[in-house]
Amino acid sequence: MENFLKTKIVAEISANHNGSLDEAKKLIERAAEIGIKFIKIQSYTPETITLDVDDAAFKISAEHKLWPGKKLFDLYREAHTPWDWHRELFELGTRLGVIVFSSPFDATAVKLLEDLNCPIYKIASLETGDLELIKNVADTGKPIIASTGASTIEEIDLMVETVFSRGNNNLTLLLCTSAYPTEHNEVGLKRIDFLRKRYQLEIGLSDHSKGNEVATAAVAMGATLIEKHFKLNSEIETPDSAFSLDPEEFKKMMQKIAEVESILGDEDWKIQKSESFSRTLRRSLIVKKDVFAGEDVTNSNVGSFRPNIGIEPKYLDQVIGKKFRFDTKKGSPLLFEILED
Prior knowledge:
By secondary structure, this protein is α/β, with parallel strands linked by helices. The chain is built from 12 helices and 11 strands.
């Protein structure tokens, strides 16, 4: 189905492999089955993203909805995609005809991904301030997708400037709210237009809300890419499962997006096929009483009426005063060829 969509759909696996290479492969296979073309993983180890420290600063707030009190190191150890899986996952994607790409979180991850010829790079929201990482990614010359969650405008400005400064202009920005899951009143889809106007780039959405309403609304707002977390089934429990869609939910989202795209159409102004009958009911100039050859065209014998059988009403002033060539009956269309020059 995705091949019929204009919107790029990205299935984010993240931690939904649940620590199993077989599950990771099944996620890619299932995504390919339902027509998803782009599948994203994350490339980090717990050691490259945080420190194994028990201080409160290295623990998630006790009030967090999904991971209360959890140590960052333990969360990332549970969620990470081991580096020795990467080659198998990329090769599987190639065999299935889908594009597997990744979010690197440091220079060593970029090197790993370059060795695998990663075709696209994603900058995660919380990495928008890591300029060295951004330079490393931009220097690959590959297309970049960058999320903007929990980032100030100044931080986004600097990230965009850094990418461009490396000669890489292939950048798509994703509106994102880095809250898991994201409540609907925290999404702020009107910011899509703000980002588009400010940066003159393609703008998409990285969606952490439940359901498909936000994603479909984003497409209506002009989003050209939707990234959504993907899980194998509704029973699975992983760090990301609460804001992920299973295959059936993903298919429904894609169907809704297809409906929105159909409703949006394209920007070229044209009369729709379904309006052909309405065109026949537009007003035109029609003879409203019997006239004889040689009579003048006047407002008393010609008027603007439905249906659309005569010349357009805009020509009324031009034909007033001309003479009829022939006897003409009431209800006849007024045409230039029945008038004298």
